[in-house]
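Data availability (excerpt). The following record was deposited with the supplementary files.
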Amino acid sequence: MSEKNKLKILIAGGAIRDLLLGNKPKDLDYLIAAGSVEEFRAAFPEARPVGKSYEIFYLKGLEFSFPRVSGNNTEKTIDLDLKARDFTANCLALGEDGELYAHPRALEDIQNRVLRPSFPDTFKKDPLRVFRAAAFVARFPEFTAHTELIVEMKRCAASGWLADIAPDRIGVELRKALNGPKPGNFLRLLIEGNCLEPWFTEFSGAAEIPAGPPQYHDKSVAGHTAEIMDKVAGNALTCWMAMCHDLGKVQTPKDILPSHYGHDKSGTVPAKKLGSRLMLPVKFIRAGETTALLHMKAGNYKELRPGTKVDLLMKLYVTGLLDNMIGLCHADRGKNVLESARADLAEILKVSLPAHERNLGKESGEKLRNMRAMRIKSFNSTNEH
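Predicted structure:
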């Protein structure tokens, strides 16, 4: 009998959920329900071990895991393993013969589009699952959080279990959410479950702070932020920028609410702290800072002086964020306030200094800025007529 014949390998987890939802599975994970580690390694010598708390192997980009819990026979092992997974909707496995294995509540919860913990201590077992839940409802907005999920999230937060998670793993879950069709749900669920601290502390209290005077805003800072994240869904970087754009409003002194004077400048530090804490790519961290600082100017683009337009456009050009900012401001203001920005940028990039005025340091920079400002002024004047 070959080593492979001693193994019983099932497709497990999210791939089966996706099939039942009528979606194409994105990731295939496998459960080795029968057979030993030695037998698996003999059958697949190229497999690479990566697990810590239980045996997990990577093979040709696929994940193969041994059961989290073992029973006295294969059927019992499968049953125990599924019940030890994170959420009922993920507690599924499919055998080679087409036999479906499921958590007792999995099929009902999938049918009802409910996200429920598979067992009460799911977050105690792995607190990262809090952020997986938040990413889940961003990726599958048709699912609603079951009351049990919210209760267990609050217990997890109150017990201090979130403190010791590896930050880069939280960043991975956030980026999954930012790629989802309703990324604002990530923030909404963390707020509902009291799970902002200690990783998303910059949003603490944001659900109670008005986003602005009633004539301009009818939501809290958190509610407005989540709404804009949803409006720019489809571009992860723009969603992150939306998440960061009003962080300065959380810092606003209570005595000047509901106004938020200077929130653009005060938002740069929390945006940088949040991105850095979660170990996001440098491009994301800088985009968050830039957005917090410049989104008000960008939103008022038409009223800016030509020189200020030049400064704004060149900053967005060199950072590669112009298109992202256009999308963000359109969502934030409800209209395309940057409709002429691309044309203006194209015009100023045509401007260059004469050879004899180059390489003069600050003087050259000021002359080039003035020439570009004159170009924008002339270009806009021509277009208005």
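Summary of structural features: Residues 362-384 form the longest helix (23 residues).
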